[in-house]
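TICKET: design request
STATUS: open
ATTACHED STRUCTURE:
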């Protein structure tokens, strides 16, 4: 699927989200969460010799969600997570590799909860959207410094709700994306960006 059609699909998902949420009974059907954590990316070997080593970038996620279905033991949410990794450091055996990059992932998704009305609720999430890498530029890296890619997202987590309108969340999401422009041949066209985080959830 081309990036053009991915962008169209993303816009359609957002439009559906807004239209559906607007029609909802507002009582406890919406949530807004903010999380902080780290992104883990496996090292990549350079064809011929050496490797690219990834750091553990400090990453933030903001997530807006609306409950679509609510049953006795489960519920289904449409969520709109946005994850931003502001500083993913790179160390490599080649001077052509950028020193760092930033990444941005926007992946509308369906999130399925069990025991959704209990104090502790496990969940899984599946979705997809777009990602963008903004690579650094320096004297030895004069290559492309901006890469947009399609992203598939899969996540698992657990919500703890000790209060009516305030809860907490632990989660792990895998943003399976294309690769940033490294200016060396690693033989990779996709990579796993594993985001591990915790934070607060507001229900309203």
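STATUS: resolved
RESOLUTION: sequence designed for all positions
ATTACHED SEQUENCE:
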């Amino acid at each position: 699927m081309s990036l053009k059609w991915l962008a169209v699909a993303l816009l359609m998902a957002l439009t559906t989200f807004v239209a559906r949420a607007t029609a909802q009974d507002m009582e406890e059907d919406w949530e807004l969460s903010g999380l902080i954590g780290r992104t883990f990316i496996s090292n990549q070997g350079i064809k011929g010799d050496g490797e690219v080593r990834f750091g553990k970038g400090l990453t933030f996620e903001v997530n807006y969600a609306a409950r679509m279905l609510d049953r006795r033991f489960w519920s289904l949410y449409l969520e709109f997570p946005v994850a931003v990794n502001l500083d993913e450091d790179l160390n490599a055996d080649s001077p052509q590799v950028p020193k760092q990059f930033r990444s941005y992932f926007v992946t509308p998704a369906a999130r399925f909860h069990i025991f959704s009305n209990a104090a502790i609720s496990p969940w899984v999430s599946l979705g997809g959207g777009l990602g963008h890498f903004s690579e650094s530029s320096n004297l030895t890296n004069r290559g492309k410094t901006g890469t947009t890619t399609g992203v598939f997202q899969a996540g698992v987590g657990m919500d703890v709700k000790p209060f009516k309108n305030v809860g907490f969340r632990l989660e792990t999401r895998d943003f399976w994306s294309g690769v940033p422009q490294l200016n060396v041949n690693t033989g990779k066209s996709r990579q796993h960006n594993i985001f591990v985080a915790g934070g607060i959830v507001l229900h309203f």
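CLOSING REMARK: The CA atoms of residues 82 and 106 lie 5 Å apart. The longest helix spans residues 3-22.
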